[in-house]
From TrEMBL, chain A:
Species per Swiss-Prot/TrEMBL record: Oceanospirillum sediminis
Annotated GO MF terms: ABC-type transporter activity; ATP binding; ATP hydrolysis activity; transferase activity
Keywords in alphabetical order: ATP-binding, Nucleotide-binding, Transferase, Transport
Residues annotated as domain ABC transporter: 52-275
InterPro entries associated with the record: AAA+_ATPase, ABC_transporter-like_ATP-bd, ABC_transpr_TagH-like, Acyl_CoA_acyltransferase, Bact_Polysacc_Export_ATP-bd, P-loop_NTPase, Wzt_C
PANTHER family tied to this protein: TEICHOIC ACIDS EXPORT ATP-BINDING PROTEIN TAGH (PTHR46743:SF2)
Name used for this protein in its record: GNAT family N-acetyltransferase
TrEMBL record, chain B:
Keywords tagged on the record: Capsule biogenesis/degradation, Cell membrane, Membrane, Polysaccharide transport, Sugar transport, Transmembrane, Transmembrane helix, Transport
GO molecular function: ABC-type transporter activity
Subcellular locations according to the entry: Cell inner membrane; Cell membrane
GO cellular component: ATP-binding cassette (ABC) transporter complex
The name this protein goes by in its record: Transport permease protein
Transmembrane segment boundaries: 34-54, 74-97, 118-142, 148-172, 184-203, 237-258
Family the UniProt entry places it in: Belongs to the ABC-2 integral membrane protein family.
Keyword Nucleotide-binding: no
Domain of life: Bacteria
Gene Ontology biological-process annotations: lipopolysaccharide transport; polysaccharide transport
Ranges of residues in domain ABC transmembrane type-2: 36-261
Membrane topology qualifier: Multi-pass membrane protein
Length: 784, 269
């Protein structure tokens, strides 16, 4: 048996070229091995009846079955972050291998070591119960994949959102269409935060938009360093996603290595195979009818054989494209099936938000597609000076029937385009245009009509930032010394370099600056902040330290440095699809009013001061403990509990990383950080950050982390601590969303002059999505 | 199965979130969409009780030995026996289908099959609790007092649990390979209803038969249950402990069979 199987392998080796393992094994060695298969084999035993199976267990020395080898001596290692793709024809053993890895099948021989949580998309929705609602099935599936109740509740909303079937989520799943069913299943399986994701042919689920989003989700899991194993018949997907590929045939590994090489070998093997098939078929056909022979073709299916996208002659999957300069070429090869008509080729470009930006089809453009005798054709589309504006786009190629009705094959995406540009035009495409102008005759009074061409030309000049007086640009470390000096001058107190570095997370680009003939006159600071906005992890930015040199403060118009600095940053970086989705800040209402008037800001929330009397009592039901290094691990737990309650709010992430940076690593920190425990509990129910109030009249509650249910208790503990420190009052800066959590503690609420603006420059409606939803406390701003 | 009492079988706390979901689902599933919902958990045994009382009292003119000659007293005695019997028959008759009815859980997903008997036991105990509340109310109304010994009921039920789990594991595993098992179980349960002390107390039987009755796994439990609920006696704790210990041995054997045969499940489903 043993010699038999080895001879099979050596025979294969003659037939198929064996591709060497990639050279980078030394690189991957220092990453941990998450999966090791060692001589894995699976022999299926086919039993005539269930009783025969039982007999086999009772009398293992006899043989009651017929054996069928589905997988033969497969060995490989996967490191953390690798993506392995399996290719092979039906029945090659791909699914068997994936099932062995998931543990739903046990190997007949060989060993398998897996470390970490596996989520499997072997059969979408296999664990669903049709009589129960979508929501109930999410809970069950999540429990099945090992999530605790709390983790499930936290992720529930996100899962529902991603599936896109919120309106049906409380209906039994047997009323779902198959597309909805699959969406829900995919959404659950990829939301449980697995270490290893196993996907069997599940990528092409749902309609176009969902397919794209699911592809993107898998891409982002790849970026997060998850280990992924999958098999797909879409060789392009495989090449795009994988860092390694294995080709299986009849249970044996034929080739293993770089995906492009393995896929190319497999593709040529398929082509050879279909050539043989169709040749034999052809001779038969010719015998029967001479007419059938004229339509000679290499394969039975019309499909794409290769798609290459080149930007200025450079091919790639992710291409950098210069707006209105680069020449984009799409090189498409295809074969036509025997029975099909000539195909047509279409190209579609989508924005990162999934919107179709542009598309074109060969049939619509009147291109006559030509093929050779083997049925092969090749088309090249050229987009010269591509007019896409800055952003990320995906380009897909589709192979249709001649009239563009039936889809034969598609490669979506064939390439990702990173469009860069020199100017600051916003939008998706640059429209062909020309300008004209009439200079008004001197002495004639300028009309107040804003449509006057004179005013127009001025505003154009200002927006482009090419005014000779002010130069606006991204702030960098180069101007660091000038920034510190400006700070001192503008706010009348010095700022240390260490404090600045801490505050701006040592970021290189920390906002925008305006220079007047080489001298820094204005700065608009930007501090990145990880946030949970309406339940989604989102990068937001806190705008602050808006400072203008005293000598140019008077220029408050739309040409002035204040406006330019703020506008530059908001326009470039904040908004839907930008680096930061939302901006926020804590300006005085007076300064904000000007910004609102100038169209920079829109009011999204306000800050009130909440005040509680000190409460002198002994803590009986709770205990408060100073935060020690051993306690740090609890912060993430508290934040998870808190995060579960804020799915309809916008809140800065308060996890361990943030708390450590914000309160523990602050230079000259003077915070009092306490963990609150229920008297007999081992794990805390809240975290408190306190500080002596600025005018010495009480204690300021800077921040707290706890679930909504525990928040009132945490405040009560803070009131007791206030009394213990000999103070009369506990104060806190809060947004109304925070106060809603603290109703039962009956604070005295007093309005302040501080408001929370959002970005009105790009898409005002987008910024307003978080109106009155900010959950902010003094800790989100107090950097002194 | 290296340890004497493998955690995954005997203390499946690692799956507590999953167990919670499955048990809730199991209980809901039975009444989902029905108008009366949980009410059926009370109506079904009461209807059965009415029929039995009518047949035995009115038609056959039976009398409960050692108790007051009244319809209500007779009903209480039968109901208490019937409750234990239903618990047993529900769990045992479902057992052979536990794995067979979940082919997806065996083949498509990674699922701890060994917790299925816990799920079925938990939902059956849930219904038993509903009946118990009715029974306690009935005793309180009919007799105008409830003996304090009813506090021993949880102990009686606890002693019953290992045996039920053991039967479940054994029958669930066999049921996969021998599809006839579920029919055989159905066939055995009907005579068992009459061979158990449901419609009569054990003391009403000749002495030689009384000893034989101990071979019926229901006898000890039904008698102990009646003793503490209706007779106001504390049950024989030595007997119950011995019974529980036997149950644990049966459970261990059932778990062993289940574990031994489970790798073949995927091959035959």
């Amino acid at each position: 048996m043993c010699s038999d199987s080895s001879s099979v392998i050596s025979e294969k080796e003659k037939d198929f070229p064996v591709i060497d393992k990639p050279e980078d094994s030394s690189v991957s060695d220092n990453r941990s091995v998450v999966l090791r298969a060692d001589g894995l084999s699976k022999v299926y035993h086919q039993y005539p009846s269930p009783v025969a199976r039982l007999r086999q267990i009772i009398q293992p020395e006899n043989q009651y079955y017929k054996a069928f080898t589905a997988l033969n001596n497969v060995s490989f290692e996967l490191h953390k972050g690798e993506v392995l793709g399996l290719v092979g024809r039906n029945g090659a053993g791909k699914s068997t291998l994936l099932q062995l890895i998931c543990g739903t099948l046990t190997p007949s021989s060989g060993e398998l070591h897996v470390s970490g949580r596996i989520a499997a998309l072997l059969e979408l929705g296999a664990g669903f119960n049709p009589e129960f609602t979508g929501r109930e099935n999410i809970r069950l599936s999540a429990a099945l994949m090992g999530l605790s109740d709390r983790e499930t509740e936290q992720r529930l909303e996100g899962i529902i959102d991603f599936s896109g079937i919120r309106n049906f989520i409380d209906q039994p799943v047997n009323t779902y269409s198959s597309g909805m069913y699959v969406r829900l299943a995919f959404s659950v399986a990829t939301s449980v935060d697995p270490d290893i994701l196993v996907i069997d042919e599940a990528l092409s689920v749902g309609d176009g938009d969902f397919a794209r989003r699911s592809f993107e989700r898998i891409m982002s899991m790849k970026e997060q360093g998850k280990t992924i194993l999958f098999c797909s018949h879409s060789l392009y997907q495989l090449e795009t996603l994988c860092s390694r590929a294995i080709w299986l045939d009849k249970g044996n590994v034929i080739a293993e290595g770089q995906p492009d090489k393995v896929v190319a070998e497999y593709q040529s093997y398929l082509d050879r195979l279909s050539l043989n098939d169709s040749n034999s078929g052809e001779t038969e056909a010719q015998n029967q009818s001479a007419v059938a022979g004229q339509n000679s073709s290499a394969t039975s299916d019309t499909r794409l054989t290769s798609v290459r996208v080149l930007s200025d002659g450079v091919p790639g999957k992710v291409l950098t494209v210069k707006s209105e300069h680069s020449c984009l070429e799409v090189d498409i090869s295809f074969v036509k099936g025997i029975s099909d008509d000539l195909p047509g080729v279409a190209i579609a470009i989508h924005s990162s938000g999934g919107q179709l930006v542009s598309s074109c089809g060969s049939w619509a453009d009147g291109v006559k597609v030509e093929i050779n005798d083997a049925g092969q054709g090749r088309l090249r589309a050229v987009f010269d000076k591509i007019p896409l504006l800055k952003g990320r786009y995906t380009l897909g190629v589709l192979l249709f029937c001649q009239r563009g009705l039936f889809l034969h094959d598609e490669v979506e995406p064939a390439a990702t385009l990173e469009v860069v540009q020199d100017g600051r035009e916003r939008g998706l495409i640059s429209l062909p245009r020309y300008w004209s102008q009439e200079t008004p005759v001197a002495g004639v009074s300028v009309n107040d009509d804003p449509s006057d061409s004179h005013i127009k030309s001025v505003s154009v000049e200002t927006v482009k930032g090419t005014s000779s007086r002010w130069q606006v640009t991204d702030a960098t470390r180069a101007s660091q010394q000038q920034k510190l000096e400006l700070f001192h001058k503008a706010f009348g107190q010095p700022m240390s370099e260490a404090l600045w570095r801490w505050k701006y997370h040592s970021a290189d680009n920390d906002g925008s600056v305006v220079f007047e003939s080489g001298k820094l006159v204005a700065f608009n600071g930007a501090i990145p902040r990880r946030s949970l906005v309406l339940g989604r992890e989102t990068l937001t930015v806190q705008l602050g330290d808006v400072m203008v040199a005293p000598e140019v403060r008077g220029v408050l118009t739309r040409k002035g440095p204040f406006y330019l600095a703020a506008k530059h940053f908001l326009e470039q970086y904040v908004g839907r699809g930008k680096t930061y989705a939302y901006g926020f800040g804590f300006p005085h209402a007076r300064s904000c009013r000007l910004g609102v008037k100038q169209g920079l800001y829109v009011d999204t929330d306000r800050i009130d001061q909440a005040r509680w009397p000190a409460f002198s009592a002994r803590l009986l039901r709770w205990r408060a403990v100073d935060l020690k290094p051993a306690h740090l691990k609890y912060i993430d737990m508290l934040w998870r509990q808190m995060a579960a309650d804020v799915s309809d709010l916008a809140i800065g992430v308060r996890d361990r990383q943030y708390i450590e940076h914000r309160y523990l690593n602050k230079p000259e920190q003077d915070y009092l950080i306490k963990l609150v425990f229920r008297r007999f509990a081992l794990k805390p129910c809240g975290l408190l950050v306190l500080k002596a109030h600025r005018d010495g009249s009480g204690i300021e509650l800077i921040d707290f982390v706890s679930s909504r249910a525990d928040a009132p208790s945490v405040i009560r503990v803070a009131q007791v601590l206030t009394a213990q420190m000999g103070q009369q009052w506990l104060f806190a800066w809060t947004t109304p969303s925070v106060q809603a959590w603290l109703d039962e503690t009956s604070p005295v609420i007093e309005p302040t002059e501080v408001v929370i603006p959002g970005n009105a420059v790009n898409d005002k409606e987008y910024a307003l999505e978080v109106k009155d939803r900010w959950w902010l406390t003094g800790g989100d701003t107090d950097f002194r | 199965m290296s340890r004497l009492f493998p955690r995954e079988y005997f203390f499946p706390v690692q799956h507590k979130a999953l167990l919670k979901q499955l048990i809730r689902r199991d209980i809901q599933q039975r009444f989902r969409g029905s108008w009366l919902g949980l009410g059926w958990a009370l109506i079904t045994p009461m209807a059965m009780l009415a029929v039995y009382t009518f047949v035995f009292r009115t038609v056959l003119n039976a009398r409960w030995p050692g108790a007051e000659d009244s319809n209500t007293e007779f009903a209480l005695q039968i109901f208490s026996g019937l409750m234990i019997f239903s618990l047993f028959s529900e769990i045992v008759s479902r057992a052979p289908l536990l794995v067979v009815s979940q082919p997806n859980m065996v083949k498509k997903v990674i699922f701890p099959l060994e917790i299925l008997p816990w799920v079925s036991a938990a939902s059956s105990f849930f219904y038993t609790m509903a009946s118990l509340v009715v029974l306690l109310l009935a005793v309180a109304v009919v007799r105008e007092s409830v003996a304090v010994s009813f506090l021993a009921i949880p102990f009686v039920l606890l002693a019953f649990l290992p045996l039920l789990l053991g039967f479940s594991w054994l029958l669930a595993a066999l049921g996969v390979y021998l599809r006839d098992i579920s029919h055989i179980v159905g066939l055995i349960l009907t005579p068992m209803l009459f061979l158990s002390p449901v419609f009569y107390p054990v003391t009403a039987l000749p002495e030689i038969v009384q000893d034989l009755m101990l071979l019926n796994p229901l006898t000890v439990i039904i008698e102990a249950f009646r003793a503490c609920l209706l007779d106001g006696r504390w049950p024989d704790f030595y007997m119950l402990t011995a019974y529980g210990a036997t149950g644990v041995i049966v459970a261990r054997f059932g778990a062993w069979c289940f574990d031994r045969t489970r790798k073949g499940f995927a091959d035959v489903l």
